[in-house]
C-alpha cells in the first residue's frame, strides 16, 4: 500500500485520502492479508504488518512540490520486489506513471478528477496498470482511461461521536479554502436563510491564504465564525454540533469524504448537485440536494427535520470499510490474474 509522503496514516487532521487508506489497510488485514504500508515519517496508526518509510519526516511543508513525491516513489520502486508482494496499491498522483517499471502489478486509485493535466498523465500509464475510480461521476469525466473498477471510499465509524436528535447549532462548511468548495456561496446561503455559519477550513498553502484574504474575509460578518486548520477531534466535535453540513461545491467533486463524516455523526448534508453528491446523499433522508445556489437557503431551514439515525445507518450500510476491502479484493484478483488485459475490463464497476 503506497501513500503520498505528505501526511501520516491516519492523518491528525485534514487528509481524506489518508483516512480512507487507514480504514482499507485495517479491513484488509482483518481479512487475513499481509499488508505493508509505504509512506513517510516514523510512525503510523494502522494494522499493517509492516511499515516502510522512505523519508524520516512527513513532507507536508513541501506539499505542492513535485520532487518529494518523485523521490518517494523512486525509493519505493527500489524496495519492491516480486518475491515480496503480489500486488501494489498506489494512492499517489504520479505513481501510475512510473508503475510500469515495477515487477509487481499495480492498482492505482485515482483520488482527483482525471481531466486536464492530470488526465494527460493518467492517459500515459502503462497498459498493465489498473485504475480505480472512487465514484461513477469521476469515472464518467474520462471514460477512456484504463479503468478496472469503481470502488466508493468508505469510513470506519466505530467510535464515531454522534448526535441523537437534530441540533440547533450552526451550519458547518468544512473544506479547504478554495473557489471549488464555495465558501462564499455558503456565506450568502446562510445569510439568506437567517442561520449562523461556521467556516472551518484548511488554510495553510499560499493559494488558500490568498483566496481567503481576497474573497472570503470581506464577506465575514457577525453571523459567521471562522476556524482554521482544525485537528481531528475538533472537526468531529464541530460535525456533531452542526445542524447540517453545507457543500456548495463549484466543481465536479470526485467523492467528498466530509459528507460521509457528517452523516456518520448524524448530521445531514445540504449540497449542490455536482460530482459524486448524488451517489452519497439520499435526498430527503440523509440530506437535501439542490440544483441551484438559490435553492440552498430553503434546504438549510428544512434540514433540521431529518433524522440523525437515518444518516448514520446510511453510512454503515453503504460505505463501510468491509465493503471497501471486498471491492478492492475483487480488483486485485482481476489485475493479478491478467495484468496486461486491464483495458478490456474497463466496463466492470465494483461497489
What do you see in this structure?
- The protein is of the alpha/beta class.
- It has two domains: 16-156 and 321-345, Rossmann fold, CATH 3.40.50; 171-318, 3-Layer(aba) Sandwich (Rossmann fold), CATH 3.40.50.2000.
- It is built from 13 helices and twelve strands.
- The chain has helices at 16-30, 67-79, 95-98, 116-122, 136-140, 183-193, 206-216, 232-241, 257-264, 277-280, 296-302, 308-318, 321-337, and strands spanning 36-39, 50-53, 88-90, 106-109, 129-133, 147-150, 171-176, 197-202, 224-228, 244-247, 269-272, 287-290.
- A six-stranded parallel beta sheet has the order 9-8-7-10-11-12, sandwiched between helices. The chain has a four-stranded parallel beta sheet with strand order 3-4-5-6.
Please give a quick description of this structure.
The chain has 351 residues and is of the alpha/beta class.
How many strand elements? 12
Low-confidence stretches: 340-351
CATH topology value of the largest domain: Rossmann fold
Helical fraction equals: 25-40%
Q: Largest beta sheet, briefly?
A: 6 strands, parallel
What is the CATH first-level class name of the largest domain? Alpha Beta
Query: What is the H/E order?
Result: HEEHEHEHEHEEHEHEHEHEHEHHH
Overall outline:
globular
Give the name of the CATH superfamily of the largest domain. Glycogen Phosphorylase B
Number of domains: 2
- Our Rg estimate from Cα atoms comes to 20 Å
Second rung of CATH, namely the architecture of the largest domain: 3-Layer(aba) Sandwich
The total of helices stands at 13
Q: How are the strands of the biggest sheet laid out side by side?
A: 9-8-7-10-11-12
Structural class: alpha/beta
Mean of all residue-level pLDDT scores:
93
Q: Between the first and last Cα atoms, what is the distance in angstroms?
A: 20 Å
In percent, how much strand structure appears in the residues? 15-25%
